[in-house]
Specification:
It comes from Candidatus Desulfaltia bathyphila. With 91 residues, this protein is of the alpha+beta class. It contains 3 helices and 5 strands, in the order ααβββββα.
Length: 91
Amino acid sequence: MNKLDLIEALKTEAGITKTEAMAVVNLFFDEMAKALANGDRAEIRGLCSFYVKKYKGYTGRNPKTGELVKIKPKNLPFFKCGKELKERVDK
């Protein structure tokens, strides 16, 4: 399922227009992205949670040349599956 499939399902289930469904889906994803950008968790009970892991900078090595390279600190989003989703998928 992709974003357009989700919009179509919302349109059908809720009986709203495609434009309204698109606005709801975009709002949902935009707010989740804002929360993660602020370092907060985005949690949907029973389904999943998204959170940000912070990595410190370190010195790496270019495998091609062997040259030492400074790697900057970074934040990466992670997904954790909820118990109910695990059970539904495992059926």
